[in-house]
Amino acid sequence: MSRPRSETFGLGATASLLASETRQIVLDRLETVERTTTHDLGRYLMAVEREVDRDDLGDADGPRPTTVALHHHHLPRLDEHDVIEYDSSEHEVEIGPNFDDVTSIVDRLERAEPR
What we know:
By secondary structure, this protein is mainly alpha-helical. It contains five helices and three strands; from the N terminus they run ααβααββα.
């Protein structure tokens, strides 16, 4: 799935991508695991939103609506800008060529944020 780094990625695209808390959480997860599935991301998002451990989510708490939103909206946007590489047929997600560029901006913003 590896692609070369995009030369056209800039601040406007970064701001647009980071405007979504869901996409911010996806990037946070990928900083830890580097490769995952849409199902895992869906469960991770649900756990973050509910402020519980993923192990505390029951089977009835399946991430279906969250996974659908990831599949149709959030992951394609990140993939379009080469921040991630998303294989929609295999439901696999991994970091892309522009991942470090975006996460370094997030890190700088977090350090600059008043406490």
